[in-house]
Amino acid sequence: MNKKKVIGYVGTRDLGRMREEDIRKLDVINIAFGHIRENETVWEDGTGTEENLERIRRIHPEIRIILSIGGWSADGFSQAAMTEGSREKAAKSAAELVAAHKLDGIDIDWEYPCFALAGIAADMRDKENFTLFLAKLRQELDALGEGKMLTIAAGGDTYFTLHTDMAQAQRYLDYVQMMTYDLQGGFVKVTGHHASLYPGTTNLFDVCVDKAVKTFMAAGVPAEKLIVGVPFYARHWKGVKGGGDGLGREAGTVGMGGPGYRELVQSYIDKNGYRRYWDDAGKAPYLFNGDCFISYDDGESLRAKADYVREKELGGIMFWEYGSDPDGILLDCIYEAFHAQA
Q1: Which sign does the torsion angle of CA 97, 101, 107, 111 carry?
Q2: Which among 110, 115, 281, 288 is placed 20 to 30 Å from 145, CA to CA?
Q3: Distance (Å, whole) CA 53 – CA 49
Q4: How far apart are CA 116 and CA 107, in angstroms?
């Protein structure tokens, strides 16, 4: 059985705050974020970043460090992917950043091909251009020498596979990180799991890790290239109606982001009027205080996901993001779940 990867998104500013024990538990760091501006890939690396990268490499020489380009509301992808010339400019400048900072590759976080959401430009030609852009990136990275990585973060629901050609795109990729979080919340005023393994019995929608895996495999991505994304933060709804345990109820707000796991432990989980519940069908925890519903991941749900990754022979687990769990509680759970079965 192949070793399962543990991959973490770490903000550029958080690189210097990483604990030594956390660095040793990671196979890959995705630095968040670089961007595309006027068809050129750029990264505001900041003061001290080179020293931070060198420290990480000294602690864990085998770790791979790649620069993630994009993120929520990051514009520039549709424009850069539109023509051969713009693709070449973006890909060459990305490869130059990899070479200049001695990085191991590039991760593309183009969240909404074909959809003009979160303030980004889009075009129906994005579906074809997505693959062409990855092909050009692969070419430029290969020109740097063997072993440079190219990965993507992909929306964890059907819309992403319908508006990309994943069977072709995956040929250029080391792996596909499914963002199997925020699956319910930002667009609906109904409480539910934002990152559950299975739908659960009282969840209004069927979005979940299992559906995402089946969807991406049906779209042509091999199981060993699929990485399950997990959140180190919560989503919460306020003004929940109907009482009970709060799950599957109408709310007065959409599911808003936060808090992070450290804050959940300190102020929410079985504290200040919040009660922890466990949905055994969905393999997901949640909190409710009679008004506010909170969906999140914890050690129990992460161990279930690690078991699932092994059972389905997937590539590993990715998390967003390090700064939400600076005490390493959730990272420890993932690492130990994989290490125990190594």
Answers
A1: negative
A2: 110
A3: 6
A4: 21
Residue 331, pLDDT score: 98
Mean of pLDDT over the chain = 96
Could you read off the pLDDT of 55-81 as tens digits, one per residue? 999 999 999 999 999 998 899 999 999
Per DSSP bridges, beta strands 105-109 and 233-237 are unpaired
- Kindly state the tokens that stand for 102: 């001695």
Question: Is 262 part of a structural domain of the chain?
Answer: no
Alpha-carbon gap, residue 157 to 37, rounded angstroms: 28
Q: How many structural domains compose the chain? A: 1
58: how many CB neighbours lie within 10 A of its CB?
A: 10
Q: 119 in a domain, yes or no?
A: yes
- Domain span at residue 309 reads 5-232+298-339
CATH number for the domain spanning 177: value is 3.20.20.80
Give the integer Cα–Cα distance in Å for 257 and 94. Answer: 30
Element (H, E) at 296: none
Domain presence at residue 84: yes
Assess whether pLDDT exceeds 80 at residue 153. yes
For the full predicted model, state whether its pTM sits above 0.90. Answer: yes
DSSP alpha helix (H) spans, 46-178? 49-59, 77-80, 84-100, 126-142, 158-162, 166-169
Question: Has residue 178 been placed in a domain?
Answer: yes
Catalytic residues: 111
SS (HEC) of 13-40: HHHHHCCHHHHHHCCEEEEEEEEEECCE
**Predicted pLDDT at 186:** 86
